[in-house]
């Protein structure tokens, strides 16, 4: 893609509760978007310190390696710690400050469905709050940066149980090399493979979604708000194809 086209793509900001969440939940989409020239930044809100496998130092290194593979940047934000995240206005303000600083057009976060790790749905809720707070000009705690309105907040699901009941947006990740890049990024989190083969689990989910949509692999996102298009020309095809 040409530099001119790439510069027209609004930045994407992705939040994860743990060092591997974004890669497992939306890594194929991230790989596709960075290849298209979109600037993407990860914010990881713990070091995975409560996990059964891998120390915080190991998991931090794995997250940085995965970000390099995907072509993104990454930062770590200390909130309450792994498995201790609480819904606090102070946290939402911290996330809103990051949104104002980076000024993304698109924000990704874990779904708010309760049937998953509690840090996941709580972070999704906090990010949703933060996208609203980032717009409000009268918040003194956010005065360092100008207000910013996000174009779209989209949620990713880390497991079938965390998928919202609404129909998702399916992103085709079948272009050559995308799944391979995504797989390498997931494999960078080697410490987490001791419990379960999460790479195969996510690839299988993507394969099923792809088959349902008539492509090789796809990943799903759920919009927080209705999507608005300038015309029908911008719409993709329906997965059913009737």
Report on the architecture of this protein.
By secondary structure, the protein is of the alpha/beta class. It has a single domain, classed as 3-Layer(aba) Sandwich (Rossmann fold), CATH 3.40.50. It is built from seven helices and seven strands. The protein has helices spanning 3-7, 21-35, 56-70, 89-102, 118-133, 178-187, 198-213, and strands at 12-16, 40-44, 73-76, 106-110, 152-156, 169-172, 218-223. α2 (21-35) packs antiparallel against α6 (178-187) and α3 (56-70) runs antiparallel to α6 (178-187). The model is unreliable at 1-5 (pLDDT under 50).
Broad shape:
globular
Number of helices: 7
| Name given to the CATH homologous superfamily | LmbE-like
Structural class comes to: alpha/beta
Strand content: 5-15%
Low-pLDDT stretches are 1-5
Quaternary structure state of the chains depicted: single chain
User: From N to C, what is the helix and strand string?
Assistant: HEHEHEHEHEEHHE
User: Which architecture does the CATH hierarchy give at level 2?
Assistant: 3-Layer(aba) Sandwich
Distance between the termini: 32 Å
Largest beta sheet: what is the strand line-up? 3-2-1-4-5-7-6
Radius of gyration: 17 Å
Largest sheet: 7 strands, mixed
Here the CATH topology equals Rossmann fold
Number of domains: 1
Helix content: 25-40%
Name of the top-level CATH class: Alpha Beta
| Average of the residue pLDDT scores | 95
| Count of β-strands | 7
Topology at a glance:
Layout: H1 3-7, E1 12-16, H2 21-35, E2 40-44, H3 56-70, E3 73-76, H4 89-102, E4 106-110, H5 118-133, E5 152-156, E6 169-172, H6 178-187, H7 198-213, E7 218-223
Parallel strand pairs: 1-2, 1-4, 2-3, 4-5
Antiparallel strand pairs: 5-7, 6-7
């Amino acid at each position: 893609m040409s530099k001119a086209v790439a510069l027209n793509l609004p930045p994407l900001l992705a939040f994860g509760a743990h060092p591997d969440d974004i890669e497992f939940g939306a890594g194929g989409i991230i790989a596709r978007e960075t290849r298209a020239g979109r600037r993407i930044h990860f914010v990881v809100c713990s070091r995975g310190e409560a996990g059964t496998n891998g120390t915080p130092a190991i998991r931090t290194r794995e997250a940085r390696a995965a970000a390099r593979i995907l072509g993104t940047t990454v930062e770590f934000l200390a909130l309450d710690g792994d498995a201790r995240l609480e819904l606090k206005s102070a946290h939402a303000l911290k996330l809103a400050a990051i949104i104002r600083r980076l000024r993304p057009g698109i924000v990704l976060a874990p779904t708010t469905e309760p049937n998953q790790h509690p840090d996941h749905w709580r972070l999704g809720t906090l990010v949703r709050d933060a996208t609203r707070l980032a717009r409000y000009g009268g918040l003194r705690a956010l005065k360092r940066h100008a207000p910013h309105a996000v174009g779209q907040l989209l949620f990713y699901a880390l497991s079938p149980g965390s998928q919202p009941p609404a129909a998702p947006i399916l992103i085709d990740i079948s272009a050559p090399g995308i799944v391979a890049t995504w797989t390498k990024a997931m494999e960078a989190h080697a410490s987490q493979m001791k419990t379960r083969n999460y790479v195969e689990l996510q690839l299988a989910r993507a394969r099923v979604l792809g088959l349902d949509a008539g492509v090789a692999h796809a990943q799903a996102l759920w919009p927080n708000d209705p999507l608005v298009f300038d015309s029908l020309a911008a719409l993709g095809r329906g997965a059913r194809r009737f």
